[in-house]
Write a structure and sequence with these properties.
Blueprint: E1 16-19, H1 23-32, E2 35-41, E3 48-53, E4 56-61, H2 67-81, E5 85-94, E6 104-112, H3 116-120, H4 132-144, E7 149-156, H5 167-173, E8 178-180, H6 183-193, E9 196-206, E10 211-212, H7 215-235
Parallel strand pairs: 1-4, 1-5, 5-9, 6-7, 7-8
Antiparallel strand pairs: 2-3, 3-4, 5-8, 6-9, 9-10
Helix pairs in contact: 2-6, 4-7
The structure holds hypoxanthine.
Residues 91-93, 157, 160, 179-181, 204-205, 207 line the site of hypoxanthine.
Length: 247
């Protein structure tokens, strides 16, 4: 079996898939953090891998940038490969003054200027929310790791280069934490297909203070975030065990 955009065989994906935007980050995570990772798809260079974290099976695959790209891969993973949960791991531009570079943002909800959830919801406003159990286990792990964390709304933008000069101020007024480009679409499709989803975002730049992570720190910060996410999922019982490979 394969889908238009994924060439893996049935059963090659674990039931939990981490999705960074960048396929090379997926490869980096598979090669440096997971044990025994195997590449299982690379259509259009959007590579995906399955390996083990502390003995527990997990997959990682790139989503590309933006809701349309991420929706293609996430839909095919859930509908055709039986994936039960998707954890977006990415970066966001901070809007909230309280956030610093390297802080984690857990997107409990995702606002958007994209029309995808209105298309799904007969023109009405769908409240795009993260799965509560996933949120809870990641909050608990961040506390154990003493990692600075904010939980709240993000904004999933269609345009990285927005012509709207008031956007960031409006988001700040509404206490939106930061801007990224995928979570609202991922939450909408997870609701549609009965899967679990959450987006975990490292603050890579601050949009009101013109600060940004140097690339050396970016890699280290993202690796630390992925370890936290994997430990959180493991302790929440979301990774496959030897007894139950696809738990
Ligand atoms: N906009 C959208 N997505 C992002 C940003 C941003 O400023 N920073 C990191 N991801």
């Amino acid at each position: 079996m394969s889908t238009p955009h994924i060439a893996a065989s049935p059963g090659q994906f674990a039931q939990t898939v981490l999705m960074p935007g960048d396929p090379l980050r997926a490869r980096h995570i598979a090669q440096t953090l997971l044990d025994g990772a195997e590449e299982i798809t690379a259509v259009r260079s959007m590579c995906g891998f399955t390996g083990h974290w502390k003995g527990h099976r997990v997959s990682v695959m790139g989503s590309g940038m933006g809701i349309p790209s991420a929706s293609i891969y996430a839909t095919e993973l859930i509908r055709e490969y039986g994936v039960k949960r998707i954890v977006r791991i990415g970066t966001c531009g901070a809007v909230a003054d309280s956030l610093s570079l390297g802080d984690l943002v857990l997107a409990a909800g995702a606002c958007t200027d994209s029309g995808v959830n209105r298309t799904r919801f007969r023109g009405m406003d769908f409240a795009a929310i993260a799965d509560f159990d996933l949120l809870q286990c990641l909050v608990a792990q961040a506390k154990r790791d003493e990692q600075r964390l904010a939980v709240g709304n993000v904004f999933s933008a269609d345009l990285f280069y927005s012509p709207d000069t008031q956007l960031v101020d409006t988001l700040a007024r509404m206490n939106v934490l930061g801007i990224e480009m995928e979570a609202a679409g991922l939450y909408g499709l997870a609701a549609e297909f009965g899967a679990q989803a959450v987006a975990v975002l490292a603050v890579s730049d601050h949009l009101r203070r013109a600060e940004s992570w140097p690339s050396s720190q970016r890699q280290l910060g993202l690796d630390a975030m992925v370890r936290l996410v994997l430990d959180g999922l493991l302790s929440g019982g979301f990774l496959g065990s030897t007894k139950n490979p696809d738990g």
